[in-house]
Amino acid sequence: MDHYQYEFEHVMGKDNIADAASRIGGKREDQLFDNGEELHEICAVTADTKEINSQLLALTNVQVREEFAKDNELQEVAQWLNELKRWPSNIAKYQAFQQDLYMQDGLLMKREKIVLPTELHSRALSLAHRSHPGMSTMKHFLRQGLWWMGMDRMVEEFVASCPECQLVTKTSKPLPIKMTELPKNPWEYVSMDFASASDSHNWKALVLTDNYSRFLVAIPMDKTDTDAVKRVLRRIFNTYYVPKTLKSDNGPPFNSTELKEWLKDHWGVKLIHTTPLNPTENGLVERSMQGINKITAIAHLRKDNWKEALADYVVAYNSWPHHVTKIPPAELMFGRPVRGLLPDIRADHQQMDDDELRERDRIAKFGRNIREDIRRGAHDLQISVGDTVLVAHQKRDKAEAVYKNVLHKVVKITGEGRATLEDMTTNKTFDRNVKHLKRFMERPPAKEVVDNVKGKV
């Protein structure tokens, strides 16, 4: 608004539209104020003048001169500008810049830049950050005409603690991928998830992958409710026997108490869940989805029966040598060679030594993890129990903030970056992976920021 020129026009009182109160007659007024009802005082909303100036009004040379006259530290610096001996300890930090400091028009200058008095630091930062520039841009903008001790550090702290910038800027990075050990035996630890498509290519299948042998099972499904999953799992258990542990995501119906109790009570199977919105924790079965999605897409393209195409793919996948173990999953699963569609001249079958298998698995995972960590920019955990954090939106529009405008406290952190959070408004708790969190930096009062910077100089 400072950039506009204004013209003021006087309007006579008789031409103004009267407000409601002025239209009330005397009798009506007496009735209102004589009925014995309790009256409520209307108070005007006011704001401190200094606060308004710091947020809205430009900073002028006149105001800088006024504050310079009140700033004891800069006044003492001005008195010592021509002294060659050691300066007093309270201003000794300025002596390194003695050749660059000089007085001009009542202002202390440093190489054509105004040395800003301490009282105006916070106001200058607020004005420079009015349109929320980044740290580098804000530093360059301030350096055009201003300087003070520790200015860069104050800019960094000011931008990093801006509530609005924290909500709309995504800075969280995933944790490095954790090396996982193979289970002791085949079909002991099994991962499961749904494969599906929507729109005109509507199909669903329950997919299970054995974490030891990589043996794949995929069963088409018409429904994905709890009862349907129980029927399919019963069929799979009766065919391949019962695993010790099933791992799934946290979506329905896997998160139902009924399914968890049914697995535990009827089959002795432990059902564990990944952290919500973090499919990489169930990466083995997620990787299987790529081949399944590809073969079903080809089936629709060729107008083939997708269920038959899926069944053929599963048989073929289990008979192909796996890229990590170099052994067909079915061979590791059942401990014997399996026949495929091509001739096999192997006379004898030699079961791979378990130690050799684990070494291959370890080497392959190590190389993959290094590549993925570099690609994703992964870093070690930077969030601790007790931190106040922001939580990313699950789904958002481009114009919407990256993080929810609600503060949460970290209650617990467990393996694979699972953090238990407490909503500081409702006190409800839930889990998220740390890659969806950002530590919230609360902006300290202006004087405290200045004192901290002075202590670090």
From TrEMBL:
<dbReference type="InterPro" id="IPR041588">
    <property type="entry name" value="Integrase_H2C2"/>
</dbReference>
<dbReference type="GO" id="GO:0003676">
    <property type="term" value="F:nucleic acid binding"/>
</dbReference>
<dbReference type="GO" id="GO:0015074">
    <property type="term" value="P:DNA integration"/>
</dbReference>
<dbReference type="InterPro" id="IPR036397">
    <property type="entry name" value="RNaseH_sf"/>
</dbReference>
<dbReference type="Pfam" id="PF00665">
    <property type="entry name" value="rve"/>
</dbReference>
<protein>
    <submittedName>
        <fullName>Uncharacterized protein</fullName>
    </submittedName>
</protein>
<dbReference type="InterPro" id="IPR050951">
    <property type="entry name" value="Retrovirus_Pol_polyprotein"/>
</dbReference>
<dbReference type="Pfam" id="PF17921">
    <property type="entry name" value="Integrase_H2C2"/>
</dbReference>
<dbReference type="InterPro" id="IPR001584">
    <property type="entry name" value="Integrase_cat-core"/>
</dbReference>
<dbReference type="InterPro" id="IPR012337">
    <property type="entry name" value="RNaseH-like_sf"/>
</dbReference>
